[in-house]
Amino acid sequence: MYVPPQRDPRPTDGPPWWLVIGPGFAALIGLFLLTVIYRFDGESPLGIELGMSSQALLLSGLVAYVVAAAIAFPGGLLLGPRFPTSVTVPALVLMLLGVLLVAFVPGSGLLLVGRVLTGLGAGAVLGVTVALIRRLRTGRGAAAGVIAGLGVLALVVAPVLGGLLSDATGFRMVFVVAALFVFAAIVVAGIVGIITLAKPKHA
């Protein structure tokens, strides 16, 4: 009796590894921005300059960011495999708006809005990154390890670099510089998306 060959359950039509570069770079920026509001000694130049208590900064600066990211993460995870660039670029625009709002915020009232916008963008690009890595044809473990390692490094390094720059120039310059990196991520994601569209698809 003829038995049809079993199909390999592993994905054979997964994304190329370089498609992870744009969302992955954006996700690392998002993780950096999570902890950059604090200095390496636990103090916050942002909170001090805006006259915020430690509890208010925790809620508006950290908790709001994490909650917003958690809300947006499933959307990036579900839509990322099919529309990586279409999700990543708008998410980065949200991040850019949020970072600029924090950079030029006149007081603590708008800080919450800026951190929510940044968190939504960061959660979405992190979801896209995870989704693409899960569907890689080869090198899935290596890609996950690299992104995870760099993500932890970004979380740890952010208070150190942010603190040094804040002490030298003020906290606003930290977010101005971060905005430049977010803009660079938009360019990278756009270029990768154009290459993906231009690349011929094999049947």
What does this molecule look like?
The chain is mainly α and 203 residues long. It has one domain (17-196): MFS general substrate transporter like domains (Growth Hormone, Chain: A, Up-down Bundle). Helix content is 73%, strand content 0%. The chain has seven helices and no strands. It has helices at residues 21-35, 45-50, 54-79, 84-103, 111-134, 140-169, 171-198. α1 runs parallel beside α4 and α1 (21-35) runs antiparallel to α5 (111-134). The radius of gyration is 19 Å and the shape is elongated.
Structural class: mainly alpha
Number of helices: 7
| Unreliable runs | none
Classify the helix fraction into a percent range.
Answer: over 70%
Keywords:
single chain, 0% strand, 203 residues, elongated, Growth Hormone, Chain: A, 73% helix, mainly alpha
Concise synopsis of the structure shown:
The protein is mainly α and 203 residues long. The chain is 73% helix and 0% strand.
What's the topology here?
Layout: H1 21-35, H2 45-50, H3 54-79, H4 84-103, H5 111-134, H6 140-169, H7 171-198
Helix pairs in contact: 1-4, 1-5, 1-6, 1-7, 3-5, 4-5, 4-7, 6-7
